[in-house]
């Protein structure tokens, strides 16, 4: 596991360097505000910093079993599989069902099945998350979200 962590952090660092070099043709700062190259460079710097931290963390650690997390606790395969299935389902259902229905379904599924919360708590947290995120994206940021089966005019 240690060799894999060293390799992956090295590859991510090289990717960060590549993005920074490729972003040179874009302006990072234009007339006192971020230009089109600002976010790629910022994200590449963050990726580079995190890959350096990951490299030195892996370099200083002992090898762990591939079936355990770095702390030695076993990986929860059922929970991991639930999250992966939820992400695939969300990608497939997002446009046809719309933001509200697909997000509610996926959040309830994750909280109920993967996290084991009761129905009332799962529905409450999902609804609150949905209302807040909808308000932020649709109202504040003016990002049009797909309406899907709730299409109204």
Describe the structure.
The protein contains five helices and two strands; from the N terminus they run H-E-E-H-H-H-H. It is an all-alpha fold and 153 residues long. The protein folds into two domains: 2-60; 77-150, no CATH class. The protein has a two-stranded antiparallel ribbon with strand order 1-2. Helix 3 (77-97) runs antiparallel to helix 4 (99-114). The chain is flat and about 45 Å long. It starts with a helix and ends in a 13-residue tail after the last helix. The relative contact order is 0.09. The model has no long low-confidence stretch (mean pLDDT 85).
Topology of this protein?
Layout (H helix, E strand, L loop, with lengths): L1 H21 L6 E2 L2 E2 L3 H23 L16 H21 L1 H16 L4 H22 L13
Antiparallel strand pairs: 1-2
Helix pairs in contact: 1-2, 3-4, 4-5
Mean pLDDT score, rounded?
85
Helix content: 55-70%
Strand content: under 5%
List the helices and strands in order: HEEHHHH
Number of domains: 2
Number of strands: 2
Main sheet specs: 2 strands, antiparallel
Which spans have pLDDT < 50 for at least 5 consecutive residues? none
Instruction: Specify the overall morphology.
Output: flat
Structural class: mainly alpha
Radius of gyration, rounded?
21 Å
Number of helices: 5
In the sheet with the most strands, the strands line up as 1-2
Span from first to last CA?
Answer: 54 Å
What does this entry show, briefly?
The chain is mainly α and 153 residues long. It has helices at residues 2-22, 38-60, 77-97, 99-114, 119-140; strands spanning 29-30, 33-34.
